[in-house]
Amino acid sequence: KFSLEARIHAQNERSINSNFLSVNGQSNKSIIGCKELIFGEGSSHFGISDGRFTELSSMDNIKTHVSLPEFDLEGNCYDWGEFLEQNHHRHLSSSHSDAQEISSGVYAEAVRNSKELEEELEKLKTDPDEIREKYQDAMDQNLVLEGKVANYDQVLKELEEGFISNVELLQICEKDRDDLRIEHDSVLKTAEQLLNQSAEAASKSDDLRFFTTFTFAEIERATSDFDPSFSTMGRREWKHL
Q1: CA distances from 12 to 16, 66, 107, 126, 135 (A)
Q2: pLDDT, tens digit, for every residue of 52-67?
Q3: pLDDT tens digits for 176-216?
Q4: Rounded to an integer, what distance in angstroms lies between the CA atom of residue 113 and that of residue 13?
Q5: Phi, psi at residue 78, to the nearest 5°?
Q6: Closest CA to 35 of 18, 25, 21, 47
Q7: DSSP secondary structure string, 112-150?
Q8: Half-sphere exposure of residue 211, counting CA atoms within 13 Å on the CB side?
Q9: Distance in angstroms (rounded) separating the CA atoms of residues 44 and 13
Q10: How many other CB atoms sit within 10 Å of the CB of residue 48?
């Protein structure tokens, strides 16, 4: 049988220890190995010391969600074994479930990334042939274009040379035209002079032709049998003629 004072002291220890376990269960961290728990006897405060300083906390602000173990006043002991085992299994089950969810998510992401990589690899396997074919087509087109450019350059050069030649030929033709025009004017002037001279010569020729049409012998023969009585002129005038 325990006295009333012993029961109160045991109840305080149970309350302090249960709240301490609740804090450990919520943070999922073990602070027993690195920090020392200091209980204030007969108080609802406890301290946590790491050797350098001591943190004081109040039990009034801590909410516990951990079921308390049964306290055996007769045996003056706690049933900690079953309590810790239950909480340990609960923690392992929760951790295992969380790990499974995380693992399944990571696995799904890895599978999706793997499929994407496989698709990219397949594209890379087929792309080189297409790229090589497109490159060859581009090179062929480039050769054709280079040939056309060379032809255009040759044509342009010929046109430039032809233009220069045509300019020179035009200058020669203009000079020949000027020379022909001068010669034409000279020929016209000469022809006009010759025409005038021909007209003068024709006029003189007509006058001479009047006197040289019949010879003297022809006139004498024509007038040998001429009857002087038909003459309106006297013999003297006739002889004079």
Answers
A1: 6, 17, 49, 77, 86
A2: 444 444 444 444 444 4
A3: 889 999 988 998 888 888 888 877 777 766 655 555 566 66
A4: 55
A5: -100, 150
A6: 47
A7: HHHHHHHHHHHHHHHHHHHHHHHHHHHHHHHHHHHHHHH
A8: 4
A9: 10
A10: 17
155 — pLDDT class (breaks 50, 70, 90): confident
Sheet containing 36-39: order of strands: 36-39, 45-49, 54-58
Output the six-digit token pair for 192: 């006009």
- Give the C-alpha separation, 104 to 185, whole Å: 114
In order of 105, 113, 114, 125, the CA distances from 118 in angstroms are 20, 9, 6, 10
Asked if residues 50 and 44 have their Cβ atoms less than 8 Å apart, the reply is: no
Amino acid identity for residue 51 in this structure: G
Locate all alpha helices (DSSP H) within the chain, ordered by sequence: 4-27, 80-211, 216-223, 235-240
Q: What are phi and psi of 139, to 5 degrees?
A: -65, -40
Domain residue extents for the chain: 4-78
pLDDT in tens, 117-150: 888 877 776 667 777 888 888 888 888 888 888 8
Q: Render 48-66 in DSSP notation, one character per residue.
A: EE-SS-EEEEEGGGPPP-S
Find, among 58, 55, 53, 80, the residue nearest to 69 by Cα: 80
d(CA 79, CA 10): 14
CA distance 206 to 224: 28
SS3 at position 70 = coil
